[in-house]
Amino acid sequence: MSAQQTALELGVSLDPIEPGYLNLCIRSGNLLITSGHTSDLKGVLGKDLSVEQGYEAAADCARKILRSVHDTHGTLDDLRVIKLLGCVYSAPDFTEQHLVINGTSDLLHKIYGKEGDGYHARSALGFAALPTGAAVEVEAIFEIKS
Fold this sequence. Notes:
By secondary structure, the chain is α+β, with helices and mostly antiparallel strands. Helices cover about 35% and strands about 25% of the residues. Strands 1, 2, 3, 4, 5 and 6 form a 6-stranded mixed beta sheet that branches. α2 packs across α3. It is globular.
């Protein structure tokens, strides 16, 4: 099954996201580079929100990223996930950012394969605040394989 078929089977919408102030995904050579995509969930991890809620917020970011990538590239097929940057709105003593951003990584692993094209580099960082109070923001880089 193709990556796009898998995404659709997992319930990922491929409807375009209305662009805002910045380009949501841009192609440069054989790379697709996304802007940060924020979760609909708002709040502070380790204060208002649990790791499990943050994980779901990170998965929400992944679904939005995939929509933007599809809008720019026309398909989710023939891509390799290269790098993720995960930003987590964190209480000062919260140290589980990596578990939160697993929500993005795990969805991409399901679509592209954990050992294959979905096996990516990643950073998961805590922030004192994120735009609009979003719990999570994620940006991604994909390689177009052909």
